[in-house]
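Predict the holo structure. Ligand: NAP.
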Amino acid sequence: MRPDDFILWKNQCYIDGKWIPALDGEVLDVTNPASGEVLGTVPKCGTKETSLAISAAARSMAAWKLLTPAERGEYLHRLHALIRENLDELAAILTLEQGKPLAESKGEIMQGASYFPWYAGEARRAYGRLIPAPGPGRRPLTMLQPVGVTGIITPWNFPFAMIPRKAAPALAAGCSVVIKPASQTPYSALAMAALAQEAGIPAGVFNVITGDSSKIGAELTGDPRVRKLSFTGSTAVGKKLMAQCAGTVKRLSLELGGNAPFIVFDDADLDRAVDGAVISKFRNSGQTCICANRILVQKGILDAFTAKLAAKVEALRVGSGLDAGVTQGPLIDESAVKHVEALVAEAVDKGARIMVGGKRHALGGLFYEPTVLGSVTPSMRVFREEIFGPVAPIVPFSSEKEAIALANDTEVGLASYMFTNDLGRTWRVSEALEYGMVGVNEVILAMAEAPFGGIKESGMGREGGSEGILDYMDTKYVLMGGLNV
Ligand code: NAP
């Protein structure tokens, strides 16, 4: 399978309805993490190209926002249909640039695409309010209006799905978008731009620009015509962009890092908990923001849980995401592998036990063995940092109170999970966890219908649900007076 096989494989940026190279002709290489081969190049754009894209977005938004929600929704429904029609090709592109197994790529694309029809509908229900008047002759009301040109910056771990979660509510609300995908995985975003073009979305409304992240980021955050920035990525870069947005007081949505606790109580359904841990921890080779990062297991069930988890992890199949039967692709780059190696070495040094895996895979390159670590404690880096790799650290605990304290012992608060069959406990623990999301006997949290997002240093804003479109709309208050009422 080669890039030349695909009609959606684009190696130029999509700005103002045209495919263009960087103005100075510079390019970036994109490599396949499974093989190390260079897949192709994309433009290395910077300040000038970003400014052009912002100009196109600002100009086109004037007409786009005046369409009715139903008319904008028609475009989104068309784009959704085109994504489904091109699923196989989009999945192959995603796997080539990112490494995840083809089945996961298909799941990511279908899940991501579902935000387009959802928000096509939500825009039609973006109601204002008629406020009961405090006195005669007056009628206060609110209306919701698009926030304005929106900058979107996305990471490499979900190169496709992270875009619709932001672009669908933005476009549905009447905003135009300038999207900057991660440099390691730009082709999924460019393929989506090709489909947006085919869907007839007017020139300038949907732009994708690749290149120098700090230059593009500086322009998107500094230009006063951009009224909103929506970013998914690391907490460190999120904080930087937040500071950069202060100068023009932009609206912000930030989906940042996590350190998810996965709590298994003695009364849990053991098999369900083990299956949940494997899916949550090892999906995308552990490179998701909502991955189980710390598996907290109550002592009464610890041995049984560990033995079953170890057996399942041993059975995972590592290899190229294009090969049938493979469940674990490579990590994204060498520094990701080194990060995992350092975390495991430090944990072992401090007394953690390797139950399964624990080193680079025999395949070499960027492949790491699916790993289970026992006897992990809060003093270890694997407990405190986002692992972003296929390592499951098991942390024993005794009481519910201790589990909650361990779970909340972090400055981030994105996803959390608990496995229990005690109804009272599900309420107590759900209310006590300092997280934006809680999965109770469930691990697949993202859905277009529900608000995904974090608290504390995991960010702000929500993607999905009826909440998601409000992040792209301003509330305008109108007071009508002098009325004969
Ligand atoms: P990252 O280094 O923060 O990069 C994310 C995006 O930001 C990329 O497009 C990157 O571009 C860009 N970027 C980097 N430096 C920038 C700058 N100075 N100005 C503007 N843009 C800049 O994060 P990552 O390593 O790709 O992604 C992994 C992180 O994302 C993890 O922490 C994960 O938890 C988080 N994440 C969170 C969620 C969520 O929903 N909360 C979802 C997925 C991932 P280049 O690639 O060109 O450098």
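DSSP finds 16 helices and 22 strands in the chain. The first helix runs from residue 47 to 64.
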